[in-house]
Known about the structure:
By secondary structure, the protein is mainly beta. 6% of the residues lie in helices and 37% in strands. It has one helix spanning 12-20; strands at 52-60, 67-75, 84-85, 88-96, 98-103, 109-112, 116-119, 125-129, 135-143, 151-152. Strands 1-2-9-4-7 form a five-stranded antiparallel beta sheet, covered by helices on one side. Strand 1 (52-60) and strand 2 form a beta hairpin.
Amino acid sequence: MRLRPRRPYFSRATVFALTMALPATSAIAEAPASPVAAAPAQAPDALAGKLTRRVIQRAPSSTPGREIVQVETEIPPGVESGWHIHPGEEVGFIIAGEVEMHVQGRPTIILRAGDGFLIPPRTPHNARDIGPETGRMLSTYIVEPGQPLVTLVDPHAHK
């Protein structure tokens, strides 16, 4: 009998505890409490009217020409992020809720609390919370510095 490797399971309480233990720096913090530089104050990005996004930390990457930005995003039930791209990789984890994820060139998937996802650079994608609770995700972006973190796009223009 061949055993399949088990996917690690984290209870919601564990994920919540880990999330609460993260540093609370934000995009408008005056003095970060850690050596990680706070994000500079910027104009709201293209998704600011639909989602609640909180920059947790931002720091230069060891990869030349890249920075790492970690963001917690909340998507209310029934709300879509809108098709968008990022100037680098997105490594994400669903903290709560159920999210329907559309990534151009891939089948649509349903992500639940405890599921991870990867989005390649400049790949159009759209997330929709399918409820009943607010979807929460933690995303780490490895992106080009100085570029907008999010740019809304027409998904048909990138095929």
